[in-house]
Amino acid sequence: MRVVVQDSPFDLGVETEKFAQGCSASGAIVTFTGVVRDVAGGLEVMEIEHYPGMTQSALEEIATQAVSRWSLEDALVIHRHGPLRVGEMIMMVATAARHRKDAFEAAEFLMDYLKSRAPFWKREVTSDGAAWVEAKAADEDALDRW
Amino acid sequence: MRVVVQDSPFDLGVETEKFAQGCSASGAIVTFTGVVRDVAGGLEVMEIEHYPGMTQSALEEIATQAVSRWSLEDALVIHRHGPLRVGEMIMMVATAARHRKDAFEAAEFLMDYLKSRAPFWKREVTSDGAAWVEAKAADEDALDRW
Amino acid sequence: MDVLYFAWVRERIGLPRERVDSSAATVMDLVEELRGREERYAAAFADISALRVAVDQELVDFDTSLNGAREVAFFPPMTGG
Amino acid sequence: MDVLYFAWVRERIGLPRERVDSSAATVMDLVEELRGREERYAAAFADISALRVAVDQELVDFDTSLNGAREVAFFPPMTGG
Fold first, then answer.
1. DSSP B82-125
2. Residues of B in contact with A35 (CB under 8 A)
3. Is the CB of C60 inside 8 Å of chain B's CB atoms?
4. CATH architecture entry for A2-143
5. Which of A90, A140, C63, C80 gives a 20 to 30 Å CA spacing to B52?
6. What is the CATH number of the domain that holds C70?
7. Total structural domains in chain C?
8. Residues of chain D neighbouring A57 (CB-CB closer than 8 A)
């Protein structure tokens, strides 16, 4: 299991390949990547604030839960903070399991928890000013299924 | 949309990175990778037979369905045939959508269809002999949810 | 028409494809015709529920018409992915 | 104890962290104490349902005891991923 919190970019291809190479007993590998998207139009930068003392341990707790609940061979979480431009990758998760159902479910679980339980806050800066991204009720509701 | 059927290996990292770079409007990218696993123990080679005239068009039809049903920005399917060793990657799918739910669902849909509707047949060769992999009732049932 | 066999159907019948001159109206009629040929065909087609069929490279049911069909393929349930 | 603020809570109060000497028994008692300080605190803590709280870096409810707590953090609902 590997959990990384960093401000620098990560290489999705390298991380995915490395993760897969390390999982010789798994038949199924799932990755999810979140990318900065210009939702409203005119996004200049997305700033991601986090809670340094808590982030790493919160992510490790979530990943540990996923590994034990779905008997994963391995799990990976990378999450960036700081200023990001449109098209930049914000984060990724990867899961490896014997069967596809477990790998998919564990990845969705990780994402649902990251969205609402990991101490990150997004702020969008456009030419019109800056605004904190509001949490969606749908993201909170998504946790109910686990 | 890209659908590739080949006997040679593919580079998961390169394909994943290239796919993500091409999807500037998507916030969510999901990949699934299937790897040869030694289920019974003693697997020497897994041979994948396919129906050359039908494979490409069947995969394209499945991918087209996924793209339209989940409004994907893009979808990728790579599937190998021929002899493969334990740990080799058999296939991958990738999906790109605005929201994570669509990207996950479309990838799971693609996998469920690939398992039961794409003309591939797996044969496992061990020191005890060779046997065709039997289709699982669970894989057929998985199609019912779509 | 061309008749193709894959996986253990191919192994049981002993060849991957053959030219068949048939006036069978449906896939099931063709199956009956092939069953009557030799023991290896009867064995391959013994249990239709264990088989799938494609006509002109589209998955179909066994009651599908063969009118105009150029290629019929028989095989076990697929195990891709 | 150390009290930390993130995102718009930090902006509204105007600082990221401060040392608070308090004998508040629970998180909610601490919130009441802070609310009484100045308008900017009252504004930040006006609607508790819009806030989340962590004590010693664990997410908790507002009725959680502060007995032995070294660090309390207030912030809006998280938007990671």
1. EEE-TT-EEEEEEEEESSHHHHHHHHHHHHHHHHHHSSEEEEEE
2. 20, 23, 26-29
3. no
4. Alpha-Beta Complex (3.90)
5. C63
6. 3.10.20.30
7. 1
8. 57
